[in-house]
Amino acid sequence: MSEEQNGKPEERAWPELKLPDLLFTDTVRGLHEAIETEWDSLRRSACQTAAGRALWKHVIHDPHAELLAGEPFLRSLYEKIKKDRHSNAREVSGVMLAVRTLWFDEKIEAALSSFNGRAAQVVLLGAGMDARAYRLSCLKESNVFEVDLPEVLQTKTTILQAATESTNDHQHVMMTAKSLNRVAADIRDKDWLQKLQISGFDPEKNTVWVLEGILYYLSHSHAMEVLKIIANNCTLTQTVLLADFMNKPSTTLSSSVFHFYSDWPDHLLPSLGFSDVKLSQIGDPDAHFGLLHDPLNLFNKLRSLPRSLQTHPDDGTPCCRLYLVQASGSPNQTIP
Ligand SMILES: C[S@@+](CC[C@H](N)C(=O)[O-])C[C@H]1O[C@@H](n2cnc3c(N)ncnc32)[C@H](O)[C@@H]1O
């Protein structure tokens, strides 16, 4: 088919926003109204992330993202994307989230295959509206645990239930994971690991920990505590940790929301007992997925600067970086 028939590639990527009917049923609409009026920015970030995945659907296949995101978040991001495209921005809104999602997808699959077919479990800490248990075929032999605050998980369950009950979407709400358990817990509390175990998490089974978009919402002490709990668990089994870290300047983007940072997660994680730490920046060969060609976009410019720099030498703007980090642990390692 010619390009004329199909539209330009850019237009194919972001056609006019067309929302699914299910978003306008009483149940789903009511839930999203409550999210708008009652949830704080911490919880709302779950829907923002889903909106990013929904609008980057030309690279991320997430059949539930629109429904889980809700109309306000979808419209708001759609307008930003439209503005960026009209102004020929070097980075279109949501690109970082798209790259981050694809990076985690790829690394989860690689981690699971590194266990050579042995049974594994995947824990999504701060799972929010993540729908990997429904969209990643690599999870078919894995037990998945989604940990998040009670209201977030309850709302997610009810939305997906509404999708199951709608005849049209019945086909789509198929899980790709072997099993899925939702664990309502605040990971700032001491008992979250216990709650996870009560839900069936087995400390002796190979585990992939997925900490996507969560650590920087925690205080320094809470984030460190979470990382130490995971590190301690490595003494029992083969473990892969996947996490994103903000550097210090990134937390100033919203100092009321972001707290924990690490400028050197590749030093921090070994000090906690992890090994094989690999760090990527958005735009690196394993973290661009063909979405960041322009050498002058924000991410590529940052990559060319030493990581120790906190402000840009040309204009004094803060060097806001997001590090994508993988690390592993095994029973043979000693915890310092
Ligand atoms: C930016 S969202 C990311 C969601 C998910 N990881 C994803 O990529 O779609 C952050 C999530 O962390 C959850 N969260 C933040 N603080 C938490 C805490 N103390 N305990 C449990 N979940 C928390 C929020 O409710 C929200 O769902």
From TrEMBL:
What InterPro entries does this protein map onto?
A: Ppm1/Ppm2/Tcmp (IPR007213), SAM-dependent_MTases_sf (IPR029063), SAM_mthyl_Trfase_ML2640-like (IPR011610)
UniProt entry keywords in alphabetical sequence? Methyltransferase, Transferase
Cross-referenced SUPFAM superfamilies, in alphabetical order? S-adenosyl-L-methionine-dependent methyltransferases (SSF53335)
An example Gene Ontology molecular-function term: methyltransferase activity
Q: Which domain of life is it from?
A: Eukaryota
Q: Which parts pass through the membrane?
A: none
Which GO biological process categories is it annotated with? methylation
* One Pfam family, short name: LCM
Family (UniProt):
Belongs to the UPF0677 family.
PANTHER family registered for this protein in UniProt: LEUCINE CARBOXYL METHYLTRANSFERASE, S-ADENOSYL-L-METHIONINE-DEPENDENT METHYLTRANSFERASE YKTD-RELATED
What this protein is called in its record is S-adenosyl-L-methionine-dependent methyltransferase
What organism is listed for this UniProt entry?
Camellia sinensis var. sinensis
